[in-house]
């Protein structure tokens, strides 16, 4: 087991996370207010932008392949190096999903 430092930019928060646990589970244990909902890699609520470092997140099904390079779903992501994360930053696909939902709602109103 290897432990890495995860720093959250803009908050001064820093935690140690092993490569055997998810970043979200450690956040919950440490009392860090990381948002989450589904905890299965689908809703994107727990997203964070990867400012520096690498994660492994093969089960992050809510992200496209390209988004996986720049965003971590903290409920699925395990550190693969020391990390700097920007919590509450969402990948572009979540904006597309929101626009689709708004379009569907507008169409339903017609
Ligand atoms: S909590 Fe839903 S994707 Fe992580």
Automatic annotation (TrEMBL):
GO molecular function: 2 iron, 2 sulfur cluster binding; metal ion binding
Keyword Ion transport listed: no
InterPro entries: 2Fe-2S_ferredoxin-like_sf, 2Fe-2S_ferredoxin-type, Beta-grasp_dom_sf
Residues annotated as domain 2Fe-2S ferredoxin-type: 4-91
Comp. bias (Low complexity): 99-110
Family stated for the protein in its record: Belongs to the 2Fe2S plant-type ferredoxin family.
PANTHER family (alphabetical): FERREDOXIN (PTHR43112), FERREDOXIN-2, CHLOROPLASTIC (PTHR43112:SF3)
The protein's name: 2Fe-2S iron-sulfur cluster binding domain-containing protein
Gene source species: Haloarcula rubra
């Amino acid at each position: 087991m290897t432990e890495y430092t995860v720093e959250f930019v803009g908050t001064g928060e820093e935690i140690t996370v092993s490569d055997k646990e998810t970043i979200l589970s450690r956040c919950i244990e440490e009392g860090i207010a990381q948002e989450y909902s589904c905890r299965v890699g689908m809703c994107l609520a727990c997203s964070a932008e990867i400012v520096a470092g690498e994660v492994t997140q093969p089960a992050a099904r809510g992200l496209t392949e390209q988004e996986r390079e720049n965003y971590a779903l903290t409920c699925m992501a395990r550190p693969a190096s020391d990390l700097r994360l920007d919590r509450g930053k969402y990948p572009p696909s979540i904006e597309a999903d929101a626009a689709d939902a708004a379009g569907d709602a507008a169409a339903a109103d017609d």
